Amino acid sequence: MDEWPPTLRKRYHHVRVLGQGAFGEVAVAVERATGRRVAVKRVFLRAGAEHAALREARALQAAAHPNVVALVEALSEGSQLYLVQELCSTDLSRLIAACYDPLPPQITKGLLRQLLLALDACHAAGVMHRDVKPSNLLISFEGLLKLADFGLARGMGPEGAAAQQDSVGCTSTAALAAAAAAAAGPGSVAASSGGGGGSESSGSGGGNPRPRAAVYEDAAAVAGRYSAAVATRWYRAPELLYGAQQYDGAAVDMWGAGMVFAELLGLAPLIPGSSDIGQLALMQQLLGSFSTLEWPELAQLPDWGKVLFEESSGVGLAALLPDAPEDGLDLLGHMLRYPPHGRPFAAAALAHPYFSNAPPPAGPREILQFSDAALSRHDHITQRLAALGS
């Protein structure tokens, strides 16, 4: 691509654009020296965008793990920053859309296990993702689930992991390039081994029982104040819907993971509200009304009490997910508790009997085989329907 700087063109052959947005674009490329396919994310640096791009690069490096999409290298040219990341086969939203029958229980279990391993690595490093949803969960060519798109990631402050201040106040492109290269690691232009990430179609157990001292931190985390306008609505925790600016980032991510789990079980979003108020209403119809007796801090949230909802005991998760196993519903119920402090850490969720009970979680190879077959079948059916309609 002519717009790429010479250094990037020398190392990578541009194949095609994957997607474009206000931030810039993502393209598929091939590393000339190895033949490896990568995703190149080009970020247009504007006021405020520099900090976001730097946070993404640093968060990816801090949370490096087999289930987190890898940042390969970072470089800048003029007013543009390039993040080179591993390329994946597809994403979870496309896999779910391609399935006509419930996922085999071992596949659901294997995918959730890998998501929890990714979150455990993030939280242990003091990183909260804040946008956990199926389209941000990629599936690699080896069948590994990869948490991607760290554009909303932040360091966790007083409500999460304790850490020392490490400001992200780089405002010049040169300073950003140096910081991004440092985030990518030794050998970068301005590179690492190891995020956002790309999918072309667009680990192992245990964990830390609590977040340890943060590897990654930022100024907002030190102040303990964050934006509530994060996460896609259907996966947004109730404290965010009520405008919380001080919150437990790990608990926010666990709520999002619970919503992804429910979608794996039911092949549809569990609570598809059309507005924030609608989301809160549907949430209570399913899980029951909010209670300040159960969650005293609720009364202190900025938007609490602005809208009155009808009292509901909730129909319960089993009503919407009748085919889900009992142990899976129990784990899901813990992940979707209203009080943030009631939700388990990722490591605790991994220790739930759901994962040790039969069937065992599917491994990467089985997940890849299932994904390839489901997507191929879906493409075949779509082509047949298109032919019949023409």
Automatic annotation (TrEMBL):
<protein>
    <recommendedName>
        <fullName>cyclin-dependent kinase</fullName>
        <ecNumber>2.7.11.22</ecNumber>
    </recommendedName>
</protein>
<feature type="region of interest" description="Disordered">
    <location>
        <begin position="191"/>
        <end position="210"/>
    </location>
</feature>
<feature type="binding site">
    <location>
        <position position="41"/>
    </location>
    <ligand>
        <name>ATP</name>
    </ligand>
</feature>
<feature type="compositionally biased region" description="Gly residues">
    <location>
        <begin position="193"/>
        <end position="208"/>
    </location>
</feature>
<comment type="similarity">
    <text>Belongs to the protein kinase superfamily. CMGC Ser/Thr protein kinase family. CDC2/CDKX subfamily.</text>
</comment>
<dbReference type="InterPro" id="IPR008271">
    <property type="entry name" value="Ser/Thr_kinase_AS"/>
</dbReference>
<dbReference type="InterPro" id="IPR050108">
    <property type="entry name" value="CDK"/>
</dbReference>
<dbReference type="InterPro" id="IPR011009">
    <property type="entry name" value="Kinase-like_dom_sf"/>
</dbReference>
<keyword id="KW-0547">Nucleotide-binding</keyword>
<dbReference type="GO" id="GO:0004693">
    <property type="term" value="F:cyclin-dependent protein serine/threonine kinase activity"/>
</dbReference>
<keyword id="KW-0418">Kinase</keyword>
<dbReference type="GO" id="GO:0106310">
    <property type="term" value="F:protein serine kinase activity"/>
</dbReference>
<dbReference type="GO" id="GO:0005524">
    <property type="term" value="F:ATP binding"/>
</dbReference>
<keyword id="KW-0067">ATP-binding</keyword>
<dbReference type="InterPro" id="IPR017441">
    <property type="entry name" value="Protein_kinase_ATP_BS"/>
</dbReference>
<keyword id="KW-0723">Serine/threonine-protein kinase</keyword>
<keyword id="KW-0808">Transferase</keyword>
<dbReference type="InterPro" id="IPR000719">
    <property type="entry name" value="Prot_kinase_dom"/>
</dbReference>
<feature type="domain" description="Protein kinase">
    <location>
        <begin position="12"/>
        <end position="355"/>
    </location>
</feature>
<dbReference type="Pfam" id="PF00069">
    <property type="entry name" value="Pkinase"/>
</dbReference>
<dbReference type="GO" id="GO:0005634">
    <property type="term" value="C:nucleus"/>
</dbReference>
